[in-house]
Amino acid sequence: MKKIAILGFGIVGGGIAEVLDQNKDQIEYQLGEKVEIGYILDKLDFKGTKYESIVVKDIQTILDDPEVVLVAETMGGLHPAYEFSLAALQAGKSVVTSNKAVVAKYGSILLQTAKENNVRYLFEASVGGGIPIIRPLCDSLAGNKICSITGILNGTTNFILNEMENKGASFEAALASAQEKGYAEKDPTDDIEGYDAKRKICILAALAFGKMFPEEAVACEGITNLDLCDVNILSEIGAKIKLIGHAKQVDDHIIMYVRPCVCLMDNPLASVSGVYNGIMVEGNVLGKVMFYGKGAGRLPTASAVVSDILNILMSPCKVDSIKFEEGAVKELCQDRSGKHTFYIRMEQEPVGYSYRALSGAYLVDQISRNEIEEKWQPDAYYQVL
Amino acid sequence: MKKIAILGFGIVGGGIAEVLDQNKDQIEYQLGEKVEIGYILDKLDFKGTKYESIVVKDIQTILDDPEVVLVAETMGGLHPAYEFSLAALQAGKSVVTSNKAVVAKYGSILLQTAKENNVRYLFEASVGGGIPIIRPLCDSLAGNKICSITGILNGTTNFILNEMENKGASFEAALASAQEKGYAEKDPTDDIEGYDAKRKICILAALAFGKMFPEEAVACEGITNLDLCDVNILSEIGAKIKLIGHAKQVDDHIIMYVRPCVCLMDNPLASVSGVYNGIMVEGNVLGKVMFYGKGAGRLPTASAVVSDILNILMSPCKVDSIKFEEGAVKELCQDRSGKHTFYIRMEQEPVGYSYRALSGAYLVDQISRNEIEEKWQPDAYYQVL
């Protein structure tokens, strides 16, 4: 029997207990023994539930129990999630988490601490909910140089964009509908401003390129300024506006941003609809692969945490190939002069460029952000992927 | 330095050498040391190439060298690929392969032999080319009960179906075009009759459900009888015919087949086009995830083999969660009485059923294969996924 502890028994923490319970036969078959939740650290007491007797209030109780081999941190927020994770690793316990904020800010320290203490720190659930992406990126694509990562990393905004497109809803109406369905929080800032997607692309870029950049330094634009008319104009050619997180290595620089971009019909990301996520990874020998699934939700996310738990319990001392250090802001590139195809809505005709006219807008080839802003004052413009 | 051997230096074997060479810095960074190809076993001599000096003709030379820790089997065919793999495992060397025929027929014995000798047998490249699917299925989805696997597993047939759809080509013309482009072999039987997809769904089902069924026992229908008119009728509603490999656990039985099926527009498999593969996995807590990418090709396939090589070199003694035994034919179910939606092309109108009329065909709900065959003599019928 393997004893674990859960820090924070909210949506994901409770989901972990549910998954461990629901699939206990399967898990015992794979692992060869049972997994027992020894402790739950939470402010609430869960009186009258079967968890009542294992709720503790002091992390030290967990740290002091030598039988606890693994701690699942699902508290959310930076503090004390970071301090508790650090203490657990230092106490020789592996840590798994779904907490992307902690991974983005303290991931390199926590990985280093895990290594020094011969334990493991895994965070599959921090990106893409239940979609396997972190481990495939590290293990299955080993032997590739990752060229780029391009993904729809936030299900809430993807749902909102879908509502605008399919129902002709304004941004505000689509947001209200997402909130009604429980896909968006009361304060939707993190999602609609792109901050959630930004943390995720930072984590993916760290795994792919070995550098974790401070999230504040990454160019980020959400979907709040999106005009329904652009969605409609693009619909005519089967193209879609998606909130994209992108990271690409170019020489010594990393281009990284979160922005609404245009996916043409033949781009597999265009068919990622509703609350789903799709993450396209390009490797130098592999070509492009895409990972698709529900990017959030109690059980999918808990499922990813449980896969990390089982992975560690089966190979507690495995040396993970996950490693990255902190990246310097000067290595980040905004890609303002790179030539791409852009969707540009403006009155003027783009003289001197090869373009395709849409209703009141243009797809202009071989142009850069800088050129667009210098030459015209467009009503809207988005890069075409 | 880690010394490995390659058995069979053809398309994939040569690709492995190319990937190891092209990404040697990256690989040395991840592994902490170099990978050296110590031997190549092949009938040819590769005179005048840099490989000339390491070509051997007798497997015993490789088995006898204690420095060789891993053997990559890329010979193709069952024999002597199986015997050589077995001998290498018994000699205490881990084995990786892209050879799906060997995995489908002898996988359970080889996995058992690996376990007994404290080495590993991995075969990521046997399904989906470079797409990470085997390891995610075993590792990342651990903790899930896999409910079903549904995939476009053969790029050649998917390309042919695409040509029929986009260019209005007949099956014969589309096949000729695939052969011209190098996507289909001179003798395309394995692809167009569905045998290749059948081996792959057998392997995926073994990993998901723990039983490897003899491929001969699996219901299999290729795309040779497909009529262009069905492709065209379905096009009207944005639906597509795809060659699907499917496996699903239902009580004590496994439903498994390879057949052309209809994917409606909102099914992500519908947007898997050309030579790409898409594999949808449904887990009981995870929901649906899809893995997408190029399912074949020299470098993508070699890339998957190299990822297995690195995985083993980094953790030579890891106990893999991959395990399956041989399944009995009686556990297989043809699903002739299961109720589904079917596309049925026939003169008669489907009285007594809820249906949607297309041009000369119908989407009929809640009907089984047995009922269709008993009641009507349709010109064509395909299950809608």
Give the oligomeric state.
Answer: homodimer
Q: Strand tally of chain A, please?
A: 19
Helix content of chain A: 25-40%
Query: What structural class do you assign from the helix and strand content of chain A?
Result: alpha/beta
Beta-strand content of chain A: 25-35%
Low-confidence runs of at least 5 consecutive residues of chain A: none
Instruction: Return Rg of chain A in Å.
Output: 22 Å
Output mean pLDDT of chain A. 94
Tell me the greatest interface. A-B, 55 and 55 residues
Sheet of most strands of chain A:
7 strands, mixed
- End-to-end C-alpha gap of chain A: 50 Å
Number of separate helices of chain A: 13
Describe the global form of chain A.
Answer: elongated
Notes on the structure:
With 385 residues, the first copy, chain A, is of the alpha/beta class. Chain A contains 13 helices and 19 strands. At the A-B interface, α1, α2, α6, β13 and α12 of A face α1, α2, α6, β13 and α12 of B. β13 of chain A pairs antiparallel with β13 (287-294) of chain B, so a sheet runs across the interface.
List the helices and strands and how they pair.
2 copies of one chain form a homodimer.
Chain A: E1 2-7, H1 11-22, H2 24-31, E2 35-41, E3 55-56, H3 59-63, E4 68-73, H4 81-90, E5 94-97, H5 100-116, E6 121-122, H6 134-140, E7 146-152, H7 155-167, H8 171-180, H9 189-192, H10 195-209, E8 211-212, E9 219-220, H11 228-235, E10 240-250, E11 253-263, E12 276-283, E13 287-294, H12 298-314, E14 325-326, E15 332-333, E16 340-345, E17 355-358, E18 361-367, H13 369-375, E19 380-384
Parallel strand pairs in A: 1-2, 1-4, 2-3, 4-5, 5-6, 8-14, 9-11, 11-15
Antiparallel strand pairs in A: 7-10, 7-12, 10-11, 12-13, 16-18, 16-19, 17-18
Helix pairs in contact in A: 1-12, 4-5, 5-10, 7-8
